[in-house]
């Protein structure tokens, strides 16, 4: 099975099951809401992809010249032009572009290996996901826990300390944090490796099925590979996760503070509900509603961070692929990769909205 | 009147503001009797809400700087927060002004009640608590099949009943109602007051009704307490208050309620506005607006004194003073 | 004696007005607590950085693009160069001072490059002078010794006029020769002084590059933010105010743009446009337009619906008046906060772009570029990644703290988007 499809299934299947469950068990309002959101996702992806398309074409700069550089002879350029259909009117090109997207036809890479781009993405998407998922979990754990803590202890030492932490960590360029961690743990202490996903020697022994190295290692009982993969995961995950945690901490804190000032919290206290119950049952649960939506919006930061983190740690994911292809002026690959990113963003957005509807009964009923 | 169930003695509450500290409640003493409905009236900002919240020690961000709160044989000021939490909801409860924002939007109604019950009576099982919730809902006219609904699915009047239900879930000794009808329209308000009266009779409740609406007080209260600029100015039974109003401020209040039966050409008003609590006027705080102001009124604050049976007022007109003549009357026009 | 109502009432207001700006600031400090400090410290930092950016030449000790020292010199480390050693009272400051007809006795250590260095430089000077038409020469009579102590002893004894040795070697024994001094480096253009933050792989002064980098960073930050502001705010006001179809279309477009990972879009734009600072500014500016748009539109909508605007309209206020007199002033605090945070973000994105090698020409003294280069030699020269990173962090921190603090002060309940 094509690796891209496999990856989508690995992530998509549990999500689809959860969605089905919610759908079946939910009320009519809920079902209508879910259906609406799903149908809205498609235009959203199309809009984003179109954005990419037009941005890359309207901006001055001939893609063919960019790709081939000054070396290409006029005949070769003309051939390439025809091949890419760049001479056709814009709308025709656009139509073809949309058609390609809907059929998942990503085209072929212009430069280098000349492989179908879908294959390249198929190998790299799992790499990015393997980094991004644990990082998000780490960021959420730190951010939500300490954000709530800071909100509860507002205007006291812990609050200011945590706000300082979140602001400092957010101000650090993520690639700098990566470099520092590389220096500290990789070079000076030599606790972890500093680049790549897995030791090259061990890698050659590992059989790939899903391209998620950790999953593959477990599937094939290759514990050496698992250990190596995990070791390599530490620094990049830490880098991305810590920077994100700053953002999540800030968001959680603000929303919990606002929720704590709501009337129903005071009313609960007036009924003698203990402060800890008030904080968790009332404030946190209610604060999570706007926080989830806001966190969903941070996907943009997540992906930007992933691009930079992958560059610092030579992580063979989609982010580094994008930068790579841009430097090589591989126009088609750039377009396809960005479209893939857009798809990712749209899906996360969908997931967030559905989770949001689960939390807030005002939407459901 | 029956026994005193809650006694406030010399209470003062301060609020920190940008320009300094203000006293929202200044040296207020008040006794609340079992089974009565005490109406606490005053303009916005006079301190009545703060006083109400202080009864449960929920006046934050204000601070109680002076005074004693005698309830159940103890001065509540000596209790720690944990002990106060045990009292709140159980012996002292509150009904809030805006029922929409006072209920947790993501929690079902029944869960609100169950939670309150289980907090104070941990031994009660979930099933038993739910039964009690159902009972309570029925008594308050809330349909049983609706207790699993969420707050936003109810109308304003119904939500206010839910709030009462919560306040009564554990048969509180004193219920403080903070402007409970302000958010309701007139008809719903009338229904609400009827309900309150019924409940009081049935459960022998003691209610402190905080409101700026004199009409509500006339309708439902047994006694009236009037506050002005953080101080108590008059305290009387309802009948005496309306028949023989003593304090000039109260008189002004009553005079300014439009009366369709009277043949008046213009509305009667009180000139001026309530003073700043940061820099209150010296002496009696009402004196700049008082038609009977005397020299002593600009110098010393009057204390609450008997002016009739079960009737107190804080005004130099009724206290011994050095017999100074009244100052120029500030015109009403 | 009518009681003076007005004086009593207005009393506290007058007191406040008399208080003046300073007292109000101090009172604000007590009221807002640490948030006040956040803003205060941040403001100081911001001003400092702006000053640095405006007058980099004044603060930077060297030209950031010139090779002013040996490569990979650690911070504070003195370069080891061939230096001219003289008796303290000789008055010689460089090889030019000993130009003449006679051969100058020069003490060197056997087996070091000193003698060759001295001779090369002497020849060069001679050539330069003769090209200028001066008929003079610089000739050295090299006297070799086994150790540096012997060489220096000869100098002290007066048997040599100058000594040439590596500065490191001299430093080791300098305490034993208090009468001797280092006049300067043998080769013109080299330097004996250390660099506060070291040098990089080309020999450029890190400190100077940092200071000049401030200018680039702030230019990018401010320009991009201004651009975004001038496009986003009017659009937001317009959309919020007029509503209808234009509003809907614009909002859908802006929402999509907003949801999209900014860096990636910036990467795409700069890649296509090519490396130049203007392109970077434009690319980053595009990213933040939706932010201004959304917030301004939201505020416009809520102000538009508010009661006091309705009241104004019922009194006949025209739309334009409502916009300028009611909506706009209410929008300004939020815009100020976003602006501050925006600059921070723009600088971060700019650094990210240059780190990836996109956007700025490679000769620009920019923090991102320095960090990228520093990564290549991370083991050997760790200071090359430390300092530029600290610089970025401090600048971004300053603007972010200011925005954060302003947000807490202006409206502690201000919703986060």
Description:
The complex is a heterotrimer of chains A (365), B (333) and C (417). Chain A has helices spanning 3-25, 28-58, 63-68, 74-84, 90-102, 117-152, 157-171, 174-188, 200-205, 213-219, 223-260, 263-270, 275-297, 299-312, 318-327, 331-359, 361-364. With 365 residues, chain A is mostly helical. Chain A is globular, with a radius of gyration of 23 Å. By secondary structure, chain B is of the alpha/beta class. Chain B is built from eleven helices and twelve strands. In chain B, the strands form two sheets. Chain B has an eight-stranded mixed β-sheet with strand order 6-7-8-3-9-10-12-11, sandwiched between helices. A four-stranded antiparallel β-sheet of chain B has the order 2-1-4-5. Chain B starts with a strand and ends in a 20-residue tail after the last strand. Chain C is of the alpha/beta class. Helix content of chain C is 64%, strand content 7%. Chain C has helices spanning 5-32, 34-54, 56-59, 114-131, 148-157, 167-173, 206-242, 244-259, 262-273, 277-305, 307-314, 319-355, 367-376, 383-410; strands spanning 82-87, 103-109, 139-145, 162-166, 180-185. A five-stranded mixed β-sheet of chain C has the order 3-2-4-1-5, sandwiched between helices. In chain C, helix 7 (206-242) runs antiparallel to helix 12. The two termini of chain C are 57 Å apart. Classes of the chains: A mainly alpha (365), B alpha/beta (333), C alpha/beta (417). At the A-C interface, helix 2, helix 7, helix 8, helix 11 and helix 14 of A face helix 8, helix 9, helix 12, helix 13 and helix 14 of C.
Query: First CA to last CA of chain B: what distance?
Result: 41 Å
Helix count of chain B equals 11
Number of distinct beta strands of chain B: 12
Radius of gyration of chain A: 23 Å
Secondary-structure-based class of chain B equals: alpha/beta
Order of helices and strands of chain B: EEEHEEHEHHHHEHEHEEHHHEE
Strand content of chain B: 15-25%
**Widest beta sheet: strand line-up of chain B:** 6-7-8-3-9-10-12-11
Mean of residue pLDDT values of chain A: 80
What is the rounded Rg of chain B?
A: 21 Å
State the largest interface.
Answer: A-C, 59 and 54 residues
Net shape of chain B? globular
Beta strands of chain A, count: 0
Distance between the termini of chain A: 42 Å
- Largest sheet of chain A at a glance? none
| Average residue-wise pLDDT of chain B | 87
Order of helices and strands of chain A: HHHHHHHHHHHHHHHHH
**How many helical stretches of chain A?**
17
Shape of chain A: globular
Low-confidence stretches of chain B: 329-333
The secondary-structure class of chain A comes to mainly alpha
């Amino acid at each position: 099975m094509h690796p891209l499809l496999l990856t989508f299934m690995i992530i998509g299947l549990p999500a689809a099951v959860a969605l089905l469950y919610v759908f079946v068990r939910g009320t009519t309002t809920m079902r209508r809401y879910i259906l609406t959101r799903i149908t809205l996702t498609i235009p959203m992806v199309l809009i984003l992809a179109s954005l990419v398309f037009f941005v890359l074409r309207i901006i001055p700069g001939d893609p063919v010249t960019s790709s081939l550089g000054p070396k290409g002879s006029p005949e070769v350029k003309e051939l390439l032009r025809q091949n890419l259909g760049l001479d056709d009117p814009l709308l025709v090109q656009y139509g073809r572009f949309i058609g390609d997207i809907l059929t998942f036809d990503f085209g072929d890479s212009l430069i280098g290996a000349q492989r179908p781009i879908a294959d390249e993405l198929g190998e790299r998407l799992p790499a990015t996901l393997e980094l991004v998922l644990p990082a998000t979990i780490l960021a959420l754990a730190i951010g939500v826990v300490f954000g709530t803590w800071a909100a509860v202890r507002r205007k006291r030492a812990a609050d200011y300390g945590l706000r300082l932490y979140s602001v400092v960590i957010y101000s650090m360029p993520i690639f700098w944090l990566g470099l520092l961690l590389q220096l500290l743990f990789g070079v000076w202490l030599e606790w972890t490796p500093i680049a790549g996903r897995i030791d090259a020697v061990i890698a050659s022994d590992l059989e790939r099925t899903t391209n998620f190295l950790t999953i593959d290692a477990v599937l094939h009982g290759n514990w050496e590979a698992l250990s190596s993969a995990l070791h390599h995961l530490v620094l990049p995950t830490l880098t991305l996760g810590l920077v994100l945690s700053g953002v999540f901490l800030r968001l959680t804190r603000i929303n919990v503070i606002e929720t704590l000032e709501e009337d129903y919290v005071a009313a609960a206290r007036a009924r003698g509900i203990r402060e800890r119950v008030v904080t968790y049952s009332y404030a946190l649960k209610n604060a999570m509603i706007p926080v989830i939506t806001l966190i969903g919006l941070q996907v943009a930061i997540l992906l930007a961070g992933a691009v930079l983190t992958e560059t610092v740690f030579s992580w063979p994911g989609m982010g580094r692929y994008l930068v790579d292809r841009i430097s090589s002026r591989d126009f088609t690959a750039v377009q396809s990769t960005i479209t893939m990113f857009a798809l990712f963003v749209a899906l996360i957005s969908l997931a967030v909205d559905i989770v949001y509807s689960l939390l807030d009964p005002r939407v459901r009923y | 009147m029956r026994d005193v169930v809650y006694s406030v003695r010399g209470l003062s509450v301060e609020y920190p503001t940008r320009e300094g500290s203000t006293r929202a409640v200044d040296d207020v003493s008040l006794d609340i009797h079992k089974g009565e409905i005490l109406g606490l009236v005053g303009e916005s900002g006079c301190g009545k809400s703060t006083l109400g919240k202080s009864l449960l020690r929920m006046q934050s961000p204000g601070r109680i700087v002076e005074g004693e709160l005698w309830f159940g044989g103890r001065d509540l000021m000596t209790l720690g927060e944990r002990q106060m939490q045990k009292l709140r909801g159980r012996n002292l409860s509150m009904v809030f002004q805006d029922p929409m924002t006072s209920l947790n939007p993501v929690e079902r109604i029944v869960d609100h009640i169950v939670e309150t019950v289980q907090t104070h009576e941990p031994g009660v099982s979930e099933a038993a608590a739910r039964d009690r919730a159902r009972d309570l809902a029925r008594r308050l006219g809330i349909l049983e099949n609706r207790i699993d609904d969420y707050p936003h699915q109810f109308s304003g009047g119904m939500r206010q009943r839910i709030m009462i239900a919560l306040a009564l879930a554990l048969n509180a000794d004193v219920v403080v109602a903070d402007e409970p009808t302000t958010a309701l329209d007139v008809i719903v308000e009338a229904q609400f007051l009827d309900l309150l009266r019924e409940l009081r009779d049935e459960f022998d409740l003691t209610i402190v009704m905080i409101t700026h609406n004199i009409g509500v007080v006339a309708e439902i209260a047994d006694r009236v307490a009037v506050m002005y600029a953080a101080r108590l100015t008059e305290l009387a039974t309802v009948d005496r208050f309306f028949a023989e109003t003593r304090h000039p401020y109260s008189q002004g209040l009553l005079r300014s309620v439009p009366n369709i039966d009277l043949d008046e050409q213009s509305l009667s008003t009180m000139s001026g506005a309530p003073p700043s609590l940061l820099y209150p006027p010296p002496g009696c705080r009402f004196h700049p607006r008082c038609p009977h102001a005397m020299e002593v009124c600009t110098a010393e604050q009057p204390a609450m004194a008997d002016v009739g049976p079960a009737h107190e007022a804080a005004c130099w007109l009724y206290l011994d003073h050095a017999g100074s003549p009244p100052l120029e009357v500030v015109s009403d026009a | 004696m009518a009681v003076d109502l007005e004086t009593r009432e207005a009393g506290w207001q007058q007191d406040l007005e008399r208080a003046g700006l300073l007292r109000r600031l101090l009172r604000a400090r007590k009221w807002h607590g640490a948030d006040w400090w956040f803003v205060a410290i941040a403001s100081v930092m911001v001003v400092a950085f702006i000053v640095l950016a405006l007058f980099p030449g004044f603060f930077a000790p060297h030209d950031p693009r010139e090779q002013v020292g040996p490569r990979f010199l650690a911070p504070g480390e003195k370069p080891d160069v061939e230096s001219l050693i003289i008796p303290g009272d000789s008055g010689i400051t460089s090889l030019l001072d000993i130009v003449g007809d006679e051969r100058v006795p020069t003490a060197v250590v056997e087996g070091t490059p000193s003698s060759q260095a001295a001779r090369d430089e002497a020849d060069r000077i001679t050539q330069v002078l003769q090209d200028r038409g001066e008929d003079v020469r610089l000739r050295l009579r090299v006297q070799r010794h086994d150790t540096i102590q012997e060489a220096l002893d000869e100098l002290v004894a007066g048997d040599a006029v100058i000594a040439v040795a590596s500065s490191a070697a001299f430093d080791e024994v300098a305490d034993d020769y208090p009468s001797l001094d280092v006049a300067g480096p043998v080769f013109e253009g080299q330097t004996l002084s250390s660099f506060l933050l070291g040098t990089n792989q080309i020999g450029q002064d890190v400190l100077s590059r940092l200071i000049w980098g401030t200018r680039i960073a702030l230019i990018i930050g401010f320009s991009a933010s201004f651009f975004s502001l001038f496009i986003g705010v009017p659009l937001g006001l317009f959309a919020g105010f007029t509503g209808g179809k234009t509003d809907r279309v614009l909002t859908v477009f802006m929402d999509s743009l907003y949801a999209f990972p900014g860096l990636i879009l910036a990467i795409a734009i700069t890649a296509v446009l090519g490396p130049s600072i203007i392109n970077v500014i434009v690319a980053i500016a595009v990213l933040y337009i939706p932010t201004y748009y959304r917030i301004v539109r939201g505020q416009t909508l809520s102000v538009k619906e508010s009661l006091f605007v309705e009241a104004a309209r019922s009194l006949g206020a025209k739309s334009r008046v409502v916009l300028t007199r009611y909506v706009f002033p209410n929008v300004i605090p939020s815009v100020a906060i976003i602006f501050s945070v925006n600059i921070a973000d723009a600088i971060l994105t700019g650094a990210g772009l240059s780190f990836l090698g996109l956007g700025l020409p490679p000769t620009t003294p920019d923090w991102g570029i320095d960090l990228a280069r520093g990564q290549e030699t991370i083991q050997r020269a760790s200071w090359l990644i430390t300092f530029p990173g600290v610089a970025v962090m401090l600048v971004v921190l300053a603007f972010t703290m200011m925005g954060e603090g302003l947000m807490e002060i202006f409206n502690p309940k201000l919703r986060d988007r």
